[in-house]
TrEMBL record:
Family: Belongs to the CRISPR-associated exonuclease Cas4 family.
UniProt entry keywords in alphabetical sequence: Antiviral defense, Exonuclease, Hydrolase, Iron, Iron-sulfur, Manganese, Metal-binding, Nuclease
Gene3D superfamilies linked: 3.90.320.10
Cofactor binding remark: Mg(2+) or Mn(2+) required for ssDNA cleavage activity.
Cross-referenced Pfam families: Cas_Cas4
Enzyme Commission code: 3.1.12.1
Role, per record: CRISPR (clustered regularly interspaced short palindromic repeat) is an adaptive immune system that provides protection against mobile genetic elements (viruses, transposable elements and conjugative plasmids). CRISPR clusters contain sequences complementary to antecedent mobile elements and target invading nucleic acids. CRISPR clusters are transcribed and processed into CRISPR RNA (crRNA).
Protein species of origin: Skermanella cutis
Annotated ranges, domain DUF83: 11-189
UniProt gene name: cas4
Keyword presence, Manganese: yes
PANTHER family, alphabetized: CRISPR-ASSOCIATED EXONUCLEASE CAS4, DNA REPLICATION ATP-DEPENDENT HELICASE_NUCLEASE DNA2
Name of this protein: CRISPR-associated exonuclease Cas4
Cofactor(s) named in the record: iron-sulfur cluster; [4Fe-4S] cluster; Mg(2+); Mn(2+)
Length: 209
């Protein structure tokens, strides 16, 4: 990342891994739209977005924690950060709240790992794991920040920065199942634009007119 470059929101990595075009529509073209899935996500985040602290079973939890990582050019807010252990052994443990259930792709894991990398830079210590809490099954999925996930997160951060820097929105890659869940489907128009009409056909139509 260049020194004069604006940091990316942590959510941009999740957007990029899910769909680079979605990431560009949001972070390059500054477009957004709500649907049922985003509304459910907002409801799930209501409690953690209020901030505050609490202690339960010896674990202190801080909500809506500002994060930043200068090395990767990232900034954002963690839904919750728990402090595990005692004294000098106490370490941050990020918890991200998601609607739905665990997914086949690793977009949520990358977003959580990016939070861990921010916390490591901010607190100067290793963050070995965190958790994703899914609203549909009301359970946590523990995520280990191993070398593979860390490398993937750094690659996605670099790729997202490069795309935003280029100010180029990638063409759509229509996937019925994935696109139907995206709140930007009407803005993106993936089904139509992924198979644009040939220039020759367009010219014939113009000549007929």
């Amino acid at each position: 990342m260049d020194e004069d470059e604006e940091p990316l929101p942590l959510s941009a990595l999740q957007h990029y891994l899910f769909c680079p075009r979605q990431c560009a529509l949001i972070h390059v073209e500054r477009q957004w739209a709500e649907n049922r899935f985003t509304a459910e996500g907002l409801l799930l985040h209501e409690r953690v977005d209020q901030g505050g602290k609490s202690t339960r079973d010896g674990i202190r939890t801080v909500r809506s924690v500002p994060l930043r990582c200068r090395r990767l050019g990232l900034t954002g807010v963690a839904d919750a950060v728990e402090l595990h252990g005692k004294g000098k052994d106490r370490r941050p443990y990020p918890v991200e709240y998601k609607r739905g259930r665990p997914k086949a792709h690793r977009a949520d894991e990358v977003q959580l790992c990016a939070q861990a990398l921010c916390l490591e830079e901010m607190f100067g210590g290793e963050v070995p794991e965190g958790a994703l809490f899914y609203g549909e099954n009301r359970r946590r999925t523990v995520i280990r920040f191993d070398a593979e996930l860390r490398a993937l997160t750094e690659r996605i951060a670099e790729a997202a920065h490069a795309m935003v820097r280029s100010e180029i929105t990638p063409p759509p890659d229509y996937s019925p199942r994935k696109c139907s869940q995206c709140s930007l489907i009407d803005l993106c128009q993936p089904r139509r634009l992924s198979r644009p009409p040939k220039v020759a056909n367009w010219l014939r139509c113009q000549l007929r007119d």
